[in-house]
Amino acid sequence: MNLHAIQAAIRDVPDFPKPGILFKDITPILSDPRLFRATVDLFAERHRNTALDAIAAVEARGFLIGAALADRMGIGLIPIRKRGKLPFRTLEASYDLEYGSATLQIHEDALPRGARTLLVDDLLATGGTLAAAADLIERLGAKVIEIDVLIELSFLNGRARLGSRPVFAPLVY
């Protein structure tokens, strides 16, 4: 299974969630066990020799890739969720999206100081979501080793919001 097959399965949905947005739908990848396994393999192979303590994943599609990757690598998963979805004391960060604004939260005890953390999501657009998520991890005293996404919409220049943090995106549009 190659990257071309994964890319070919991504469905473009115009005007979702609002007019003018071309949504990259990964559900065809998720529903095909070979494609989903190949997607997780991309990230697992990349980090086979990386010392990681945890994978942090962003709600909601980041959870799907992040959970499978954490299981494959034998490390814990740290959920970063929208405001009001985590049951314990949290830290929060607000940010702008290409179609609105939102707030993310992480449990205040999610990661120990110095924890080497891989941050995972499905897509990098404007960078607001991932910048807020990385900020939360770093406010806990943990380290973001890399930010991994399946898809990057490079024309939105999201990497610029992520500063010097390394980013890996196998599919760039």
Q: If you had to describe this structure to a student in words, what would you say it looks like?
A:
The protein is of the alpha/beta class. It has a single domain (50-172), classed as Rossmann fold (3-Layer(aba) Sandwich). It is 29% helix and 34% strand. It is built from 5 helices and 10 strands, in the order αββααβαββββαβββ. The chain has helices at 3-9, 27-30, 33-46, 61-73, 128-139, and strands spanning 11-14, 22-25, 54-58, 76-82, 90-97, 100-107, 116-124, 143-152, 167-168, 171-172. Strands 3, 4, 5, 6, 7, 8, 9 and 10 form an 8-stranded mixed β-sheet that branches. It has a two-stranded antiparallel sheet with strand order 1-2. Helix 5 (128-139) links the parallel strand 7 (116-124) and strand 8 (143-152). Helix 1 (3-9) packs across helix 3 and helix 3 packs across helix 4 (61-73). The longest helix is centred in the N-terminal third of the chain and has 14 residues, at 33-46. The two termini are 20 Å apart.
Map the helices and strands:
Elements: H1 3-9, E1 11-14, E2 22-25, H2 27-30, H3 33-46, E3 54-58, H4 61-73, E4 76-82, E5 90-97, E6 100-107, E7 116-124, H5 128-139, E8 143-152, E9 167-168, E10 171-172
Parallel strand pairs: 3-4, 3-7, 7-8, 8-9, 8-10
Antiparallel strand pairs: 1-2, 4-6, 5-6
Helix pairs in contact: 1-3, 3-4
